[in-house]
Amino acid sequence: KQAEKAVHQKKEQSKTKCRKARRRHINLVAEFNRRQRKNIWLETHIWHAKRFHMVKKWGYCLGDSPTEKSYRACYRAMTKHCLLQDLSYYCCLELTGKENELLKQLARICSIDTGLTFEEACCLSGRFEGSLYLYRADRYPEDMLGPVTFIWKPRDGSENRQLWIWMHPALKQDVLRELKAVFQCSEPEEIYIPEPITTTIQEEKQMDVVLSLGKKRKKEDKEGEKAVPVKKIIGDGTRDPFQSYSWISQSTGIVISDRTMEILRYRLIGPLSHSVLTETLKAASLQTV
Hints:
The chain is α+β, with helices and mostly antiparallel strands and 289 residues long. Helices cover 30% and strands 24% of the residues. It has helices spanning 2-16, 19-22, 28-35, 45-49, 71-80, 99-106, 121-124, 172-183, 201-213, 273-280, and strands spanning 40-41, 52-57, 60-66, 83-86, 91-98, 130-135, 144-152, 160-167, 187-191, 244-248, 255-258, 266-269. Strands 6-7-8-5-11-10-9 form a seven-stranded antiparallel β-sheet. Strand 10 and strand 11 (255-258) form a beta hairpin. Helix 1 (2-16) packs across helix 9. The longest helix has 15 residues, at 2-16.
């Protein structure tokens, strides 16, 4: 009876809705989560997918080239207005611990001969972002890992500091492995296991009826088990979501955390970038932080 009722309702909807609306998935959140199981989507994926040729790299689905002529418009925005780039696919590693211990070990993977270091006064205060080249521990000028950017959290009166290091996803595994070896962080602090989204009984029945009418949308995977809609997995494609993403050193107490896809990162280019930020964002008071 439910199947007949669903067929009857489908015929009535076909008279009032267009073909695009009829083909729209009944649960877009579950459909989007299914489509990004292998390659993570950025927050701006829907906008880019309508305007760019998408490519799958480093575990992400990224916009490669525009589908129409927009190079001159982008150049005008960079020179006269403001151009925004989504760099959220860059990986972020967070270091937490005593400042002197952090600087002591970080000095082994960089050199003052290449420019800035983590001890730069303007960057150590947390007011400016710095950039440098990382090397394997005590191996300069050989075995370069790659370029990174970093920013310190401003001092709050305690001896513990927080440092965020941003790098290209192709460098993440090498840099993370080197940092864990330098700080001797091997014990996982905690393990995160994503929980499935709970759906109501009525939604499940409605989903079963719709899926039973056609064979295009399958609710069973290759093994025949029912696929449960899951939350968006935080992290890039190179990290197993069921493995630990935070490591702590038993000797120094320094904690290394993987903050990939937990912090959105945008780059604004152009003379009106500051004006756009002041009109869009408002500084929060210290009581609400």
